[in-house]
Amino acid sequence: MKQLWFRWVRLLETVEPAESLALCRIMAGIGLMASVSFAWHHETWRLLWLDAAEGGYRTLAELPWLIRLAGGARPGVVPPMMVLAGLCGLALLLGWRARWSAAVGLVLFNSLIRINPHDGSAYDSLLTNQLFLLAWAHSAGTWSLEARLRHGSWGPLTLVPAWPRWVMIVQLVLCYASTGMQKLGATWLPGGELSAVHYILQDPFWRRFDLDLWLPGCLWLTRLATAATWWFEVLAPLLLVALWLRATPKRPGFWRALCHRFDPRVAFAVFGILFHLGLHLLMRIGPFSWIIVSYYPALWAGSEIRGFCELLERNPKRSP
Amino acid sequence: MNANAKVIPHLRGTLVAVHLVAITAGSLPVLVDERILTPETWKDPVALQEFGRWSNGLAQIGIERSVDEVGAMLWDVASSVLRFQRTVQAPFQGYYQEAGTRQRWRMFPASVEETLRFRIDVERNGGWETIYRMGDPERPWGREHFDRDRVRAALNLYAWGLYPESYEQLVDWIAARAPGEGKVRIGFEALPAIAPGEAGRHREASDWPEQRLVRERERR
Known about the structure:
The complex is a heterodimer.
Chain A lengths: L1 H10 L3 E3 L1 H22 L3 H6 L15 H6 L7 H17 L3 H16 L8 H15 L8 H7 L7 E3 L1 H19 L14 H5 L18 H16 L3 H10 L6 H8 L2 H19 L5 H6 L8 H12 L7
Antiparallel strand pairs in A: 1-2
Chain B lengths: L2 H24 L12 H4 L2 H16 L6 H23 L3 H6 L15 E11 L2 E7 L9 H4 L2 H11 L4 H12 L8 E9 L17 E8 L3
Helix pairs in contact in B: 3-4
């Protein structure tokens, strides 16, 4: 047990180039700005995040400590906090004081979204979880204003702890697996009529377009989408197994060899990005797709992303 | 090596391990959301429809269970799972709330054969005129609010009968702002969805035979 513990402690001391976490930071910064601006648009915050006495629709009894401390869900409190949260998103995008920006952005955004828990969406939690990890990560080691000021270069080689990236992968897998395992409606499960997507795309709450005329003609496609969604989400934990197989190349085994020959992360990311793109095109779910895809760069080590960028720079088409 | 350099790796190891345990515990799937695990929702037509599907599915693999039996079985399983989840998550509740590490990932757990859409009517010339209907560009009053994803998330909860007091407050908020001088009527239109075997068709306003959670308010 003691040996296992020391192995765990040593594992967490692993360092790698910062590119992967930098990409996550940039995407999370955009996600934070988007989330705040969506609530800012048409002053929706007035309806949702102000107390009934101040022009909102609800009597907000249980406020987060920061909102209480600042004086309550009032017009003099909520908009400045939204602006500050948006600026934290901008600072994350630029890579300026990234850990502090993530921490302050987290506290502000986490307070805002808890003013009225009824308006919450899964992307709020995805974003706060990512901000929490970025508050611990050295994500501004490269592709950042900090790197530029410290090293005189936008993209210096900086080694940073890898564990926040690993935890992001676990978080991503947990999100998919949990949502997949809760899709227990008979319209989702294999062996059933696989009509879940067919019905969801008729729901005026979430659909982007009125497809009532066309959906029955595309039944094969919605059935395929239902099955693909369910299997993708439920089997997501296999990604962790595949990553472990890839991380232990010296051991024998067919599956390990297969995971080295065909990188499962590529298949996962291609399917995932297409899936979320489709979701965003067909459904009105705010910045959910962007925020969940902002975890995807964590699938690759910083050294791999750096290597890929170097490969692009050495592209023969650009050589003299 | 100073004392800090010795302690920090172990502290980091402990904190990361606790975080992983917390987020895994928070992500444990539940059969039914705790907010809708109530005797009332178990009698809801939508729930009964789902039990019917399960009953049919079980019959296909040779297990005969009536709709009521399936409902009772699912109630027992859902309650047990929820109790277990609450116990496991209890030590981390403060951490989920304050550190922003909540793990509620219930997204479209079941689809329903009935769609609802939010609607606002105002009284004009002795009759009702619809000024807002979700997704209807010809009835756009207030769509800058009601079409936003956060507002739709709240409306979706209210449409399923959750947080009735907040729904009443929303109705009051709308009634105080809707144009005109007569009464205001607010509710959700309900219509069976187009089943997989049916032909596609546009569902017009006249198709909506049933309304839910209809509230009328005198203008303030």
